Amino acid sequence: MFSLLFFALLCATCLAKPGLVHFSYSRAVGGGSGSSFSSEGQGRITAVRVWEISNAYITGIQLRYDYVWSQKLGRSYGSAKEMVLFDNEVITQVSGKYHSNYIYQVIFVTSRGRSLMVGQPYQRSFNFYPTHPEAELRLLSGRYNGNGITSLGAHWGVVFMDQSNSTDNSP
């Protein structure tokens, strides 16, 4: 009986393989009124666009996954500020400012130390980052009303590149 229990425990330990998938969530900040949103797309985030009302708050955000832009989160107002990521560059931090009614500033920081800062430094600060050192921004979620983004949260994960598409023919 003891041998059977030891064998079952050994099998369960081998199957668990801790650390293979690393996801984390940065809890949303802001008032949270309006409709909920979540970005979605296939592949890595390769660019970001942000709209704002000048000297006011963030009205919309859009992410590009590989070569396809996601739906706008919120609304576009005026011209967008945009950052296109380099090959193998990822978003490692999202920061900014918020008040009870809107997100007033958003800052995207990359693995190369570049950043896109849009909006006004007004009220409370937030700082989103992954819990795993190899994780990157995978999607944004939150809420918006007819005017702008009212809350924002970040979802992080480690992206494992598919080795089956490699052009390296070495054994």
Structure description:
By secondary structure, the chain is mostly beta strands. Mean pLDDT is 86; it is low at 1-20 and 163-171. It has one helix and 13 strands, in the order H-E-E-E-E-E-E-E-E-E-E-E-E-E. The protein has one domain: Vitelline Membrane Outer Layer Protein I, subunit A, CATH 2.100.10. Strands 3, 4, 5, 6 and 7 form a five-stranded antiparallel sheet that branches. A four-stranded antiparallel sheet has the order 1-13-12-2, with no helix packed on it. A hairpin with a 4-residue loop joins strand 12 (136-144) and strand 13. Residues 1-16 form the signal peptide. InterPro entries: Jacalin-like_lectin_dom, Jacalin-like_lectin_dom_sf, PolyBind_ProtTraffic. It holds the Pfam family Jacalin. Residues 23-158 form the Jacalin-type lectin domain.
Q: What is the number of helical segments per DSSP (H or I, 4+ residues)?
A: 1
Order of helices and strands: HEEEEEEEEEEEEE
Total strands? 13
CATH superfamily, please?
Jacalin-like lectin domain
Report the helical percentage. under 10%
First-last Cα distance: 45 Å
CATH architecture: Aligned Prism
Radius of gyration: 20 Å
Beta fraction:
over 45%
* CATH class assignment: Mainly Beta
Query: Regions with pLDDT < 50 over 5+ consecutive residues?
Result: 1-20, 163-171
Structural class: mainly beta
Most strands sheet: 5 strands, antiparallel
Number of domains: 1
Report the principal-axis shape. globular
Q: Write down the overall mean pLDDT.
A: 86
At CATH level 3, the topology is Vitelline Membrane Outer Layer Protein I, subunit A
